[in-house]
Amino acid sequence: MLDIDELYRRMTERGITMIDRIQGPPRWSGPPLLLRQTSFRALAEDRLFRQHDGSVTTEPVRVRFGEVEARGIALTRSGRAIYDRLIATPEDADWDSEFPHSESELDAAGLAYFTYRNEGTVVVRDPIVYEDFLPASAAGIFASNLDSVTGFVSDAPGAEYGQDRLEGAIDRTIEDPFELYRAQQEASRAVLPPAHNNRGLPSEPA
């Protein structure tokens, strides 16, 4: 598995300007959760701009950047609620006391999604990889690539683009990601031999 902390350190040592920090959950003693991502800072590239008086000037813009992701275990609604609470107050967050330190404990507590398979007399659990984005982390990536002189305003009013409006625009139903992970987990349960189906497995997560 990618060690994103080591990658960040080595790229910095090579003189590559990185964004100020790795976005997402912090490094901790338990299994990797959700998504951690970072990038090198977008390159300042000169572009031509035509001004109101017709003159043409050259100004630097930051557009292209490289992003690296390290994906972890998909959390259930209960697990995600803990994550959202911790990430909202990072200075006070104690990840080691809020989350169990092993995959089996996360599973037993109903905090993460897993698939199950039978190997002889043993049921083996495999973590389901988180395949979505974290809004705060994605925003952090883009915000870190802005220059302070751009006039970025974090509390500027924005248009309301809810799920209903997006579904109307694409003419498709947007699936609930928690339900997709849950269905994947339950499908793996369904093919276990009857004698193993409920042996040591947690109840359906919230």
UniProtKB/TrEMBL annotation:
Molecular function GO terms recorded: dioxygenase activity
UniProtKB keywords: Dioxygenase, Iron, Oxidoreductase
Region (Disordered): 185-206
Family from the record: Belongs to the 2-oxoadipate dioxygenase/decarboxylase family.
Cofactor: Fe(2+)
Domain of life of the organism encoding this protein: Bacteria
Name of the featured protein: 2-oxoadipate dioxygenase/decarboxylase
Entry EC number(s): 1.13.11.93
Organism, scientific name: Rhodococcus erythropolis
PANTHER family: 2-OXOADIPATE DIOXYGENASE_DECARBOXYLASE, PTHR39479
Broad class of enzyme this protein falls into: oxidoreductase
Pfam families per record: HGLS
